[in-house]
Design brief:
Strands 5-4-6-7-1-8-15-14-13 form a nine-stranded mixed sheet, sandwiched between helices. A two-stranded antiparallel sheet has the order 2-3. Strands 9-12 form a two-stranded antiparallel sheet. The relative contact order is 0.19. The protein has 377 residues and is an alpha+beta fold. The chain is globular, with a radius of gyration of 20 Å. InterPro entries: ACP_syn_III_C, Thiolase-like. It comes from Sphingobacterium allocomposti.
Length: 377
């Protein structure tokens, strides 16, 4: 088995930062009304700026595949070119198409060479699942290198026009033409962007990071769906797929909108996160003293104090000065968030040889968690 090193990290954030006051200019107003949820959600999530692959009038500027390819291009130079890549492993929760897969579309954008590709589907953990596929490939000797990515282009899912038919339908039913909170909530939470890492067997560069281990946990066997799209949720907690609705209902009920059961989120996201984090640390025999930087992907600053308290109660208190986050400035980029945090930490110059970095990614879709433990070389 080979050691695996993250030798390079690169990112691509589209256009320019979008402030809280500008958001509805880009996304539009549903039924020409300001969202009642917007200020409440933004006050709790603590995000001040984010990036959209949109013009100010809501027209797309990049596809998800293009965002990802631009990030990957930042890994290349005269010492490692696109032609040297052996494996491309990409994770996202917002692919441009139902098919073909996201990774093959990114490969098409790169246009580099015949190579193995892997697409990791899901939500926030998709980026970590893509990383683990690359990690295991290099570690096993299947390939000598791997490019792994996490990306999102959620803005195009959230523009007001996608909800116009539902508003018209509500008016016809003589109901209040206001989009339900479980749909409106996420319009003010999600952002666009991409980042990529280069994995190799040998360390090189100024500050390579050795991946010591990766772990993943799913609680879908005991918890129902919390975040979903392309479906609707019944009273029994089961999902009904878009393919089982009439095509006119796709628009009249905004079936493809991203939705979140915020009550389930609040009840389980932290408790299961603490439980899985402790399990991973115990399995590998590490304590909080063995973590110099914690990179937690949290969707909202609302959860930070609760997560810290949960760790403390579980006996794995990680001091707050060790937490490294960029949610306030970059926003919640889902599968790309942990990559973007890592890129910023590496670029900051703070890391020192021998330090340890813990990547911590929760996914609320059906409560999945992923972890990686890195050593600065």
């Amino acid at each position: 088995m080979h050691e695996v090193y993250i030798n390079r990290v690169a990112k691509f954030l589209p256009n320019h930062p979008v402030s809280n006051d500008e958001m509805e200019t880009y996304l539009g107003k549903i039924n020409d009304r300001e969202s009642k949820a917007r200020r409440i959600v933004l006050r709790n999530n603590g995000i001040q700026t984010r990036y959209y692959a949109l013009t100010g009038s809501g027209h797309p500027t990049h596809t998800n595949a293009q965002l990802t390819a631009r990030a990957i291009e930042g890994l290349f130079d005269e010492h490692f070119t696109a032609a040297d890549a052996e494996l491309l492993s990409c994770g996202t929760s917002s692919p441009d198409y139902l098919m073909p897969s996201h990774a093959v579309m990114v490969h098409g954008e790169l246009g580099n060479r015949n190579m193995e590709v892997n697409s990791a589907a899901g939500n926030c953990c998709a980026g970590m699942n893509a990383l683990k596929f690359g990690f295991l490939s290099v570690r096993s000797g299947n390939t000598s290198n791997a490019i792994c990515t996490g990306s999102e282009r959620m803005s195009s899912w959230m523009i007001a026009d996608h909800f116009s038919k539902e508003v018209e339908n509500l008016k016809q039913l003589e109901e209040q033409p206001i989009i339900a909170f479980n749909k409106d909530f996420l319009r003010w939470m999600l952002s666009d962007g991409a980042a990529a890492v280069l994995l190799e067997r040998m360390p090189r560069g100024e500050q390579p990071l050795r991946i010591e281990w990766m772990e993943g946990y799913s609680f879908a066997h005991e918890l129902e769906v919390c975040m979903y799209a392309g479906a609707d949720k019944g009273e029994d907690g089961r999902l009904k797929s878009f393919s089982d609705y009439r095509s006119e209902e796709w628009l009249s009920q905004s079936i493809f909108a991203v939705k979140q059961d915020t009550k389930l989120l609040d009840r389980y996201i932290l408790t299961k996160g603490v439980e899985s984090m402790k399990h991973a640390m115990d399995k590998h025999g590490i304590t909080p003293a063995d973590i110099d930087y914690l990179l937690p992907h949290v969707s909202s600053h609302y959860f930070v104090e609760g997560l810290y308290a949960g760790f403390a109660d579980a006996g794995i208190e990680i001091e707050r000065h060790k937490w490294f986050m960029n949610l306030r400035d970059v926003g919640n980029v889902g599968a790309g968030s942990v990559y973007l945090m890592l890129e910023e930490l590496v670029r900051s110059g703070r890391l020192k040889k021998g330090q340890h970095v813990m990547l911590c990614v929760p996914e609320s879709a059906r409560f999945t968690y992923a972890y990686a433990y890195l050593t600065v070389c």
